[in-house]
Amino acid sequence: MSNYDVVIIWGWAAGLYTGICLDKKLKKIVLEKNRKPGIKVLLSGWERANVSNMDIEPMRDYFTQNKKFLLSIFSKYTNWDIMSFFAENNVSIVEEDRSRLILESGDSKELLSCLLDNLKKQNCELETDDGVEKIELTSQSSQDLGFKYKVTTKSGKNYFAKKVVVSAGWRSFAHVWTTWDGYKMAEKLEINMTPTHPCLCGVSTKQDLKEISWVSAKVDMKFIDKSKDKIIYAEFGPILFTHFWVSGPIIHNVSVAAGEYLNSLKIPESEFEQYFCDNFSLEIKIPLENATKSLKKFFELSEEDNIRNLDLHTFRSLKEAKATSGGIDTNELDNHMQAKKLAGLYFNWEVVDVTGKTGGFNLQWAWSSAFVTAEHINKELK
User: What does the alpha-carbon distance between residue 303 and residue 101 come to, in Å, rounded to a whole number?
Assistant: First the structure.
């Protein structure tokens, strides 16, 4: 049995950064179920570490059911703050296309090393290869000592904590051992959640596109609900055509927008795919100067006639998705990332119903939500 001021569940970007931002004097530990921490950090930006974005507007660049919630979080910790952190640690950042901020070294291992080095400097313990089984409220006698929560791992170890931070990941990206763990913990503690679905992924089409498979172009795209004649999302950027689906940065953003929209309709999660299939389409305007010969031929494009519609079928699978939309309802959290129902219990990053566009926005959400979490705990345990 071990007593801690703070137990942090999962040692990925937000979990590690929460530990870094906590007061050095606090007794704290990160519990990571994998043998090595930060596996998904290593995959960010196709292993080049897309750490943030120069151009961030929370209301524009993030998807959730309560966007006003974001303003408080991002006002406390911005892209400039994380850039300062990296500068102080001699980690060089460069700006690339779409205002993405990438490690100059192009090696995500540098990012992970920076996080682990700072975690150690802050006297934060790290336990790996032992996942968390459950979180429980303790007996009254333990509460008198301030240790309100008991965290039990799969190996049977118990950690008593004054504060618990759940920084668990999405259920997508299963090849890095992502699971439902964070969602299950929340549900057992009666924390409400919004339905989850794959995102930052391609979407399948009803049309056969094999004649233009692996052809790409920059297009003006509108994502439409035909039943309501409503534009849900629009963006200009690159699209990639494959046999029966479309992909690329703007399509990945469509997949996030689709989930936010479906949740706003309050339809059951079991009906998401059917609604998607029945009602969603893409309108793409393909400037001829951006079109290859094969695109011009396939879509029979001309200067006067360069707008085409693609009827959509559904999201690509969770195995392909880089993220999962939905999760902890932000209405369940205060502006410190703390559960309103259970003081001392915090949720941040991926497990929360906040998903950014592709291009560094989700790692910035990790840094911002982690900082806000740690800032409040530092004040509470001062």
Answer: 36
Nearest to 121 by CA among 85, 157, 93, 149: 85
137 is written with which tokens? 């409220």
Amino acid letter for position 112: L
CA distance 126 to 16: 9
| DSSP annotation of 221 | E
pLDDT digits (tens, 9 = 90+) for 153-195: 999 999 999 999 999 765 545 544 455 678 888 888 999 999 8
pTM above 0.90, yes or no: yes
Scanning 9-67, the segments in alpha helix (DSSP H) are 13-21, 39-47, 58-61
| CA atoms of 324 and 250, how far apart (whole Å) | 17
Residues 6+ apart with CB under 8 A from 57: none
Three-state DSSP state, 283: strand
Whether the Cβ atoms of residue 42 and residue 337 lie closer than 8 Å to each other: no
Q: How far apart are CA 275 and CA 225, in angstroms?
A: 10
